[in-house]
């Protein structure tokens, strides 16, 4: 009994210190057991073991008093034969020892492994801003924080009922005026083309008539020339007879002179008619080439001159018409551009640029917003990463590109990844959902990429866990700040 009284405080003190150590290890390793429950369990097991030992010692002392002194060997009061200890006592002692080993093993492994003090799943946050001012309308009435969206899916719409359409109206008035001018030019063009056709027909009729007239005149000259040649032959014969008779004084000298005159006149008449025929042939050939030669007009008749004037006026109308059409085409392009600009200023559809979910809503349906105002923040689930804080000793062992594993707290598949950023003591500000400054258990910060976090439709942002670093894998040496 003396042993029990002296040993019990030491055992209780040992159990209490072990419970405190186990509680600290439990907090560091985030074990599933509660420290108080473990301490109570150990104290209960030790008390049962002490009570059993005290009972066994009493029985041993009574047996030694009743036995003969020669047969009883001197024994120590604090030793009990193993054969006399109950199996239940041995089982409880073994259970207490196993619990102590289990509770002490996790802190030992944690102490030897290169792990993070705390780690959390993080992702980029994309801010959607209003491109124009106007009233907000949600594409889906049930849109709220946590709602999921796919890439290029419409989230909300902004409509500006006070958009300025004055410039577009001015362009449309210019278009209408230009359209009226083009219509007038088209009508004038048709009239001039009709007049030109009539003048062309008139000119052609004049040319054909002139050619016919010249042909008839040439035939008339040919007839006169034939008659004159006949007269010349007759005059030549008369002159020959008169010359012969004059030699015999059968005729007078006056008769001979008259015969000579007739012969010369007919000869000159033939020559005159021949030249007239040549002139008529020149006019005929020119008329066939659309060149008109005459005594009463120049090289172009009045119908041809009028035709030229109409042709020039028609060319001017055509040029003005083409210019107006080109100007109308440019004006229509400007109207289309101004229409698109007004549509962009009067209505804007805000679409998701990533696959993710709503992180924060900064506006409400029906609210009037200004251009550039923040409307909503989206989580980019495809850019999920892990932000961890580590001690200085652990940080000095890490390198960019080093392999690591992430075990989510509360169960889940262990993920493989690598280190992509070593920020040291600097808590770098970024567009992440959770800033590095929020991890304050250790001063050094590390960013890791785990491709498995981006798989699936759900975002795991904010889920904590434990990162284990593989310091044996290669990588660029990191320098502490």
Automatic annotation (TrEMBL):
Record carries keyword Coiled coil: yes
Positions with biased composition (Basic residues): 1-10
Region (Disordered): 1-26, 52-80
Alphabetic keyword roster: Coiled coil
Keyword Coiled coil: yes
One GO CC term, this protein: cell envelope
Subcellular location: Cell envelope
Amino acid composition bias (Basic and acidic residues), ranges on this chain: 52-64
PANTHER family: MEMBRANE FUSION SUBUNIT OF EMRAB-TOLC MULTIDRUG EFFLUX PUMP, MULTIDRUG EXPORT PROTEIN EMRA-RELATED
Name the record gives this protein: HlyD family secretion protein
């Amino acid at each position: 009994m003396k042993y029990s009284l002296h040993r019990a405080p030491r055992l209780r003190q040992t159990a209490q210190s072990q419970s405190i150590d186990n509680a600290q290890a439990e907090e560091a390793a985030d074990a599933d057991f509660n420290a108080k429950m473990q301490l109570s369990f150990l104290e209960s097991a030790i008390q049962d073991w002490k009570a059993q030992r005290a009972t066994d010692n009493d029985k041993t002392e009574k047996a030694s008093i009743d036995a003969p002194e020669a047969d009883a060997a001197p024994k120590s009061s604090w030793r009990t034969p193993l054969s006399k200890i109950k199996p239940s006592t041995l089982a409880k002692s073994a259970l207490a020892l196993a619990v102590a080993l289990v509770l002490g093993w996790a802190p030992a492994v944690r102490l030897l492994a290169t792990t993070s003090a705390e780690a959390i799943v993080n992702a980029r946050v994309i801010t959607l801003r209003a491109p124009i001012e106007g009233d907000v309308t949600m594409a889906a009435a049930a849109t709220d924080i946590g709602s999921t969206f796919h890439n290029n899916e419409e989230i909300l719409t902004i409509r500006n009922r006070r958009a300025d359409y004055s410039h577009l109206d001015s362009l449309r008035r210019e278009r209408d005026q230009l359209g009226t001018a083009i219509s007038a030019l088209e009508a004038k063009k048709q009239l001039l083309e009709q007049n030109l056709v009539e003048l062309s027909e008139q000119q052609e009729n004049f040319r054909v008539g002139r050619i016919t007239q010249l042909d008839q005149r040439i035939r008339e000259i040919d007839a006169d020339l034939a008659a004159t040649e006949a007269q010349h032959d007759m005059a030549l014969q008369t002159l020959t007879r008169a010359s012969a008779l004059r030699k015999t004084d059968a005729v007078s000298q006056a008769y001979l002179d008259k015969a000579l005159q007739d012969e010369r006149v007919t000869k000159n008449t033939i020559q005159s008619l021949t030249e007239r025929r040549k002139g008529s042939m020149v006019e005929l050939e020119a008329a066939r080439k659309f060149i008109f030669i005459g005594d009463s007009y120049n090289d172009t008749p009045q119908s041809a001159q009028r035709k030229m004037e109409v042709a020039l006026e028609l060319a001017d109308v055509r040029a003005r018409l083409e210019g107006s059409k080109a100007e109308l085409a440019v004006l229509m392009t400007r109207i289309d551009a101004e229409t698109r600009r007004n549509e962009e200023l009067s209505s804007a559809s805000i679409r998701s640029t990533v696959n993710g979910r709503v992180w924060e809503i900064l506006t409400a349906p029906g609210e009037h917003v200004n251009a550039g105002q923040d409307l909503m923040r989206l989580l980019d689930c495809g850019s999920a990463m892990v932000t961890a804080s580590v001690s200085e000793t652990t940080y000095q062992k890490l390198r960019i590109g080093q392999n690591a594993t992430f075990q989510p707290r509360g169960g889940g598949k262990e993920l493989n990844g690598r280190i992509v950023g070593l920020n040291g003591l600097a808590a770098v500000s970024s567009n992440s959902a959770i800033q590095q400054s929020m991890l304050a258990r250790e001063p050094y910060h590390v960013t890791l990429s785990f491709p498995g976090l981006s798989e699936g439709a759900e975002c795991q942002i904010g889920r904590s866990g434990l990162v284990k670093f593989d310091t044996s894998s290669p990588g660029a040496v990191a320098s502490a700040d």
